[in-house]
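Q&A log
Question type: sequence-to-structure
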Amino acid sequence: MSEAFQIMLWPLVACLVLPGLLIYLGLHIIRRGIIFVDLALAQVAALGTCVAVLLHHDAHDWQTFAWSGAFTLFGAAIFTLTRTRDHKVPQEALIGIVYVVAAAAGLLLLSRSPEGNEELRKTLVGDVLLIRPLEIAVTLGVFALIGLAHFTFRRQFFALSHAPEDAATTELRVWWWDFLFYALFGVVVTIIVHLFGVLLTFSFLIIPAVCSNLLVRTLPLQLAVGWVIAVLASSAGMVASYQLDLPTGAAIVVALGQALLLVGAGLSLFRRRSHTPR
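Response status: OK
Response body:
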């Protein structure tokens, strides 16, 4: 077994089996028109991790996950209460404020830690190469439960994502279902940020979903296309990071960005050709 295969095996497995739920949630986020909510929640989760680090907990201690989860649920409550049909202050503006404040607070907290710079780097780009089989198995189990919850309540969640105005006029308890959506989303973000970091978490949630939205229309096809793009970009990023000795998480983010550029360029070329007179 080659050294490269040994190093990349479990990170590659993680990028094969974990992005599926992230892509599904990303499709919901795009439909809701609040693209940066995942980035903000990821930063809020990272802020909880910063508090735990300041209290001298290890990154894999249960206390760290508890702090991160508590902060994320608080963020979910904020986003639920600020989602209204009154557009005087767009929710995206409030999401941006939460992100900026959480990022600044994290910087302030980590400035008190002797290893603050290293911890800040981990919260941003993660340590993909340190992912182990047990972490993948536990994460996959939690994701399966959350996926089951989404399947069970798919009518309510899709109503709020695709037609929130209609949902508000029905018997749906909008705030409750919105909070449940964000709470489940927050659990996903809390777990995945510890594995992938803030930037890669955001990229897996949004970029494959955007690509699949551009290419296909039905949900099953969007999930399939998004997963293929995530896997191919992850593999390319890992190969580049090994060959060029680059940070793996950042390399995967760039590879996902390049995939989006290729999809956009390909669609633009196809549309030009289809409109060219013969």
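Response note: The chain has twelve helices and no strands.
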